[in-house]
Design a protein that fits this description.
- The complex is a heterodimer.
- By secondary structure, chain A is of the alpha/beta class.
- In chain A, helix 6 crosses helix 14 (472-483).
- The two termini of chain A are 25 Å apart.
- Helices cover 34% and strands 19% of the residues of chain A.
- By secondary structure, chain B is of the alpha+beta class.
- Chain B has 3 helices and 5 strands.
- In chain B, the strands form 2 sheets. A two-stranded antiparallel ribbon of chain B has the order 1-2. A two-stranded antiparallel sheet of chain B has the order 4-5.
- In chain B, helix 1 (3-15) runs antiparallel to helix 2 and helix 2 crosses helix 3 (54-71).
- The chains are: A alpha/beta, B alpha+beta.
Chain lengths: 648, 114
């Protein structure tokens, strides 16, 4: 895939105005440069994607193709029509986490909504976000303080306007959630109880016991289910966005999906589409994410010509329980990681490699009490140097009673697998947790694809910068889901959608003709290929990176992708065929490549991205990494939309 | 630890009606501190005296859990039966030490947000 990366700094001319701690602003436009037949433009955060589109429209005249499109008979689609395999909605929402549901509830006041989700509706990263959601809700706290904490955590790569908007609007979003029925812990005085998490200088974490994400998900789902204008399509896997070229613009008019229960392809035609499909943890072998997080949205958006940003910033937790090191292995592969709290290190836990050498003092004088990111890097470095699968976290030198009273959950979990943490060290390995990067949005959740909006983890709004502040992700999802509402409604009202649009794109089909034997082979191979990809990502695009390793990653991923696609097509697979595992695999390949190439493009270390070839911060590099759509000349099956581009 | 005593431990743990924690079930983590303390006390005693039979173990565990509850009383139930944390005044919150005391959000050692 010819991914064009504009590391908007290096060789492009631009003026820059910024001050430390004030975020980044670009004063002037970057001139256009053609490269490999594609247009390459630098973008600044403050200029925004929508402004880019405005300038674009001024420079190009309407093409005849556009007029042909508009000459179709137009109908309003305030009521959705069903024709079995094609459904018409005003709004299509992909994903049923906090971002998708919050948005759906608002836009449902203006039109019909389809919520398309690949598993059960509650299966989302939101549901697993247990800690809380941050907002300024205390008189002694301030938006400025929340902003400052966010920007510091983000290693000064955050977009200041985005941070301001999110921190300012957060409190109202929380109040709305409460009005919708979400039940958060409160104090005896009746006020919300606010906790304080690492990185926050004030108490500002709103939570529901220790199941905040689940509580928010519950409240929103209940409202969605009771809304007559919202139809939820669960077990519908989104395959590709339905887009076409309107002159220089790419326009989105819905999405194809596979009903994984009936093996039927359903085409959703919509005036507006919100991508809220969450994260991509499963590009790595160890992740906290539920199995649904395979980067589907990022991949679909990239294939649909949307701009992707900051994919190199992957957040890992340093100490997930390593099943490999347990005496009794779990019967089936753990679906999401069991994270060992920092409290174990805080209470005196020591980290050893498998030769029982204490290694933290080699990396930081604070040893095990160094910040989490330092610990993560140190563990990663040890594992790569020694070619081992996990390290050991030992708390057994502490009094047995203290261990068992402070960490009963770890004790029980380990005991069930034959390990007594009061006597033996705990095997741990870093786990991928959150993607700070994603589909680039402006301040209204808009993308460079008309009619396509994004919110939640799949988006790169500029809030997180190079590293996410704790509990800011639920907040970002809430704020941007809300902000995308009005522009979506405006777009919906001005959109001309034709019923015959459903035939504009080739339909995907299910591989019935291949037979069960071949399908078995393909599924088995795909499963192995997934493991191999995850292994490559962990080994070559892990926490401590290097140019050599990243280049090796690109090569290996490319080879693996080619090998897998060849295998498919040799066994009779057709370009338009779809199956859940195959579609997830092509999305994982897409995301893996985006992460590797973004990491290669950043010639500095900042926040979550650390590379030994550029180990320091570079002020001149304090810019987002941006990936523009690529030409299709050298593309793979995984990097092209399934349907053919419409011919004029 | 011998398999025999491990299985005795597990059956005794289930007697305490603590849901078996699994990687997919976060609900199991909202067990009350007293129950989790009972489990930990039980594991303590059983590790030291693997020869005890079921009945004796259950009794011992009950005594221990009572001691534990009295010792580590950090809150109480209010009129609505909701747990109130004495130190922070938080209503309906998680029992036990502050989940964020080391920066991340943890319960019983398992981290769920950071």
């Amino acid at each position: 895939m010819a991914a064009i990366i504009a590391y908007a700094g290096g060789h492009l001319q631009h003026g820059v105005n910024f001050g430390r701690g004030q975020g980044y602003k670009q004063a002037v436009w970057v001139p256009c440069v053609t490269f490999n037949g594609c247009l390459q433009r630098g973008l600044s955060w403050s200029c925004g994607v929508s402004k880019f589109l405005q300038i674009h429209r001024c420079n190009f005249s309407q093409s005849p193709a556009t007029e042909n499109w508009k000459s179709f008979r137009t109908v309003t689609t305030s009521a959705y029509l069903r024709d079995g395999s094609t459904k018409y909605f005003d709004f299509a929402v992909i994903g049923s986490g906090v971002a998708g549901l919050r948005y759906a509830l608002e836009v449902a006041k203006q039109g019909t909504v389809a919520v398309i989700t690949k598993a059960e509706p509650h299966e989302s990263n939101t549901n697993y976000a247990q800690g809380g959601v941050s907002a300024v809700l205390c008189p002694s706290d301030s938006v400025e303080s929340h902003m400052q904490d966010t920007i510091v955590a983000g290693a000064y790569l955050c977009d200041e306007e985005t941070v301001k908007v999110v921190c300012t609007e957060g409190p109202d979003r929380i109040r709305e959630l409460i009005a919708m029925g979400a039940s958060f812990d409160h104090g005896e005085d009746g006020n919300l109880h606010l906790a304080r998490e690492g990185g926050h200088s004030h108490h500002r974490i709103v939570h529901a016991a220790d199941m905040t994400g689940r509580e928010i998900e519950r409240a929103l789902l209940e409202a969605v289910v009771n809304d007559p204008n919202i139809a939820v399509f669960k077990h519908h896997f989104a395959i590709d966005l339905l887009t076409y070229q309107d002159g220089p613009d790419t326009v989105c008019h819905g999405v194809d999906a596979l009903n994984t229960e009936t093996q039927e392809v359903i085409r959703f035609i919509s005036k507006v589409t919100l991508l809220a499909s969450g994260g991509a943890g499963h590009i790595y072998p160890s992740t906290t994410n539920p199995p649904v997080a395979t980067g589907d949205g990022m991949a679909m958006a990239h294939r649909a010509q949307a701009v992707i940003s900051n994919m190199e910033f992957v957040q890992f937790h340093p100490t997930a329980l390593a099943d490999e090191g347990l005496p009794i292995k779990p019967k089936k592969t753990r679906e999401n990681a069991f994270l060992i709290t920092e409290a174990v290190r805080g209470d005196g836990g020591i980290l050893y490699n498998l030769s029982m050498e204490r290694f933290m003092p080699l990396y930081d004088e604070r040893a095990e009490l160094a910040p989490r990111d330092v610990v993560a890097r140190s563990i990663d470095d040890q594992l790569k140097k020694r070619n081992e699968k996990y390290v050991l976290l030992d708390i057994s030198h502490k009094p047995r009673e203290k261990i068992l009273s402070h960490f009963p959950n770890i004790a029980i979990e380990c005991l069930q697998h034959g390990l007594d943490i009061t006597r033996q060290p705990i095997p741990v390995v870093p786990a991928a947790h959150y993607m700070c990067g994603g589909v680039r949005t402006g301040l209204q959740g808009e993308t460079n694809v008309r009619g396509l909006y994004v919110a939640g983890e799949v988006a790169c709004t500029g809030l997180h910068g190079a590293n996410r502040l704790a509990s800011n992700s639920l907040l970002e999802a809430l704020v941007f889901a809300r902000r995308a509402v009005q522009p979506s409604i405006d777009h919906m009202k001005s959109s001309n959608l034709d019923l015959s649009a459903s035939n504009f794109w080739t339909r995907p089909d299910v591989p019935k003709s291949l037979g069960t034997d071949v399908m078995h082979k393909i599924l088995r191979t795909t499963k192995e290929v997934r493991k191999e990809l995850q292994s490559v990502m962990w080994k070559y695009v892990g926490i401590v990176r290097s140019t050599t390793r990243l280049q090796a990653a690109e090569q290996k991923i490319g080879e693996l992708e080619a090998k897998w696609e060849t295998y498919l097509f040799e066994h009779g697979w057709q370009q338009t065929m779809v199956a859940l595992e195959a579609c997830e695999m092509r999305n994982l390949f897409c995301c893996a490549k985006l992460v590797a190439s973004s990491a290669l493009a950043r010639h500095e270390s900042r926040g979550l991205h650390y590379t030994i070839d550029f180990p320091n911060l570079e002020e001149s590099m304090r810019l987002p990494t941006v990936i523009f759509p690529s030409s299709h000349m050298m593309s793979t099956w995984s990097s092209r939309q399934l349907h053919q581009q419409p011919m004029y | 630890m011998a398999r025999a005593s491990l299985s005795r431990l597990f059956s005794s743990i289930s007697e305490l009606s603590i849901p078996k924690p699994s990687s997919n079930s976060f609900r199991s983590e909202s067990m009350t501190r007293s129950a989790s303390n009972s489990a930990s006390r039980f594991m303590c005693s059983s590790a030291q005296q693997p020869q005890l039979n079921q009945e004796e173990k259950a009794n011992e565990e009950k005594q221990e859990s009572v001691k534990v509850e009295n010792k580590e009383e950090e809150g109480e139930e209010d009129e609505d039966g909701q747990y109130v944390n004495k130190e922070t005044g938080e209503v309906g919150g998680p029992r036990g030490p502050e989940p964020t005391r080391y920066g991340d959000w943890e319960r019983g050692g398992r981290c769920s947000d950071f």
